[in-house]
Design goal:
The protein is α+β, with helices and mostly antiparallel strands and 546 residues long. Helices cover 64% and strands 8% of the residues. The protein has helices at residues 2-18, 25-45, 63-72, 75-82, 85-92, 96-101, 105-119, 126-139, 146-175, 183-186, 194-209, 222-253, 255-274, 278-292, 299-304, 308-318, 320-325, 327-330, 334-341, 395-399, 420-429, 431-447, 453-490, 495-512, 520-531, and strands at residues 50-51, 59-60, 345-349, 354-356, 364-370, 373-376, 382-386, 391-392, 406-409, 413-419. The strands form three sheets. It has a four-stranded antiparallel sheet. Helix 9 (146-175) packs antiparallel against helix 12 (222-253). The chain starts with a helix and ends in a 15-residue tail after the last helix. The model is unreliable at 99-105, 459-473 and 487-546 (pLDDT under 50).
């Protein structure tokens, strides 16, 4: 259908304007074939599903709804452009053959000219072309390059309008009988070959549309003048549309780069307004160049619009090089890596920047994606250097102490930071990874000459505190168990209930005096112990609380 529409819209104007054998066999066969196919297409449209307006993924297949929608939109235009009005007119003109043979040729010529004008109705098929091109773009996903397709469609439409205008430039004088002041008669093209006639007509139309002249001669008649103005208006309209689409194309080709240039321009104006030193301006400019690489994205806004699962997949893909280069991640649980990666924040440091300053309270730890950092002691000596795949800053997060050393960027460093809140939230879910990081932190403290017990002592304190709590609970359980055994052997009757209540009160007093355990499981066990005041306790039951 698309190819047939293009052929009709190109061939019909040429045949109508430059060929007079309207009743030739080839021309009649071509028109009848085209009209038949377009009439069949109308029938097919009544059986073709349509997309819902509010939901593009659902198709309406109800014939009644399809017919109602088609009748309200494009049916009448498609029907008029598909009916052979010129042949119907010739058939109902009963005396056409007699007038063509017997009467003078004037009447027959007028009938043929009117038939030509009626055949121009077929050009209304342009509406189908526009619809089918848009459907073709959707099927083959060409709307992904929508701006390029709009430019291409506009150029094709301009060429088609120029083609029609050229044919019209010759058709009007031909219908008038080529008056002596027409441009065709002035150029003596009445009996020329059709291709020469078409070439001069197209040249004249394009000259008007591009506003570069009037062709070979300026208009000499009123008809030529109106045709010239029509061509100029159509050409100016196409030129304005083309200019607007071209501007839109240039702006949308690389919107991220355009936003980067705008942001850099704002930064430059800010630096000039604040009268920053030249050296600082240079550092800011270099930072933007290295940080954004010529493209600016609001990544947080983009990722914030995605679903949680899709956002996690995108972040994991973006950080795949970091995960691959950090041995700590390579040997860790996949869920742990995913939880950490989704909470990382990208940061860039320039050579000489102090990333961590000794003695300050730590709020972040860092993973090195690319670059080299130096661990600097208080006396200025470099204890060690870290490069791609390493991490630092975790010691003070584990010990809640101040920074034990400074970290300085040796080169441009691309880092990912993890805040202390996210750090604790993740490690609370993965205690094994916490112990692993504590072991590495102790080794690093030993390497830079610090006391490694800062980490181990903190860990031992927690274990001792938890151990003392469990010992107290065991003592309580053992005491209650002995009392319960004694009660079972000495009291067999009514005194049972009073002893049980007394034991419950004793248990409540003892457990209330205990410190609150840090582990949720231990807390739950104590509450279970308070609630389940059973009449007897046995030593075998103490395993539950251990």
């Amino acid at each position: 259908m698309l190819l047939l529409l293009v052929a009709n819209l190109i061939i019909l104007p040429v045949a109508i304007s430059f060929f007079n054998d309207d009743l030739s066999t080839r021309w009649i066969a071509f028109n009848c074939l085209s009209d038949t196919i377009f009439l069949i297409d109308i029938v097919v449209n009544f059986r073709t599903g349509i997309m819902q307006q509010d939901n593009a993924e659902q198709v309406i297949l109800d014939p009644k709804l399809i017919a109602k929608n088609y009748l309200k939109t494009w049916f009448f235009l498609d029907l008029i452009s598909s009916i052979p009005l010129d042949y119907i007119f010739l058939i109902f003109n009963q005396d056409f053959s007699e007038s063509f043979q017997i009467l003078h040729a004037g009447r027959a010529l007028r009938i043929l000219r009117l038939a030509k004008l009626l055949s121009l109705v077929r050009l209304l098929r342009l509406s189908r072309l526009v619809r089918y091109v848009s459907q073709w773009e959707e099927v083959y996903f060409l709307n992904m390059a929508s701006v390029f397709m709009r430019i291409f469609n506009l150029i094709c439409m301009m060429l088609l309008i120029g083609h029609w205008s050229g044919c019209l430039q010759f058709l009007v004088p031909m219908l008038q009988g080529f008056p002596s002041n027409s441009w065709v008669a002035i150029n003596e093209l009445q009996e020329a070959f059709w291709l020469e006639q078409y070439s001069w007509a197209l040249f004249k139309a394009m000259s008007h549309m591009l506003c570069i002249g009037y062709g070979r001669f300026p208009p000499q008649s009123l008809t030529d003048m109106w045709l010239t103005m029509l061509s100029m208006i159509s050409g100016a309209t196409c030129y304005a549309l083309f200019l607007g689409h071209a501007t839109n194309l240039i702006q949308s080709l690389d919107s991220s780069r355009r936003q980067y240039r705008e942001r850099v321009k704002q930064v430059e104006e800010y630096m000039a307004y604040r009268k920053l030193p030249r050296e600082m301006r240079q550092r800011i400019t270099e930072y933007f160049e290295h940080r954004y690489q010529g493209k600016f994205f609001d990544e947080e806004a983009i990722l914030g619009e995605l679903s949680e699962k899709l956002r996690e997949d995108v972040i994991n893909y973006n950080c795949r090089s970091l995960v691959a280069s950090v041995p700590f991640f390579a040997n860790a649980d996949g869920n742990f890596v995913s939880d950490v990666v989704t909470k990382l924040r990208y940061e860039v440091f320039q050579p000489g920047d102090i990333i961590i300053k000794e003695g300050t309270i730590g709020t972040k730890m860092y993973f090195i994606q690319e670059g080299i950092v130096d661990i600097v002691m208080a006396n200025g000596e470099v204890a060690t250097s870290l490069s791609d795949g390493s991490y630092f800053g975790e010691i003070c997060l584990l010990t809640n102490a101040r920074r034990v050393a400074s970290v300085r960027a040796e080169t441009y460093c691309n880092l990912f930071s993890l805040s202390v809140e996210h750090f604790n939230a993740v490690l609370d879910q993965y205690p094994l990874m916490r112990r692993t990081m504590e072991s590495v932190a102790a080794e690093r403290l030993n390497k830079i000459g610090k006391n490694p017990n800062l980490v181990s002592h903190h860990e031992e304190e927690e274990e001792e505190e938890m151990g003392s709590e469990s010992k107290t609970i065991n003592a309580v359980v053992n005491a209650l168990s002995e009392q319960a055994d004694h009660a079972n052997t000495s009291v067999e009757s009514v005194g049972n209930r009073s002893l049980i209540s007394e034991l419950g009160r004793s248990l409540h007093i003892l457990t209330a005096s205990l410190p609150r355990p840090k582990s949720e499981s231990n807390f739950a066990n104590v509450q279970d112990l308070q609630m389940n005041q059973r009449p007897s306790f046995h030593k075998s039951d103490t395993n539950t609380f251990q």
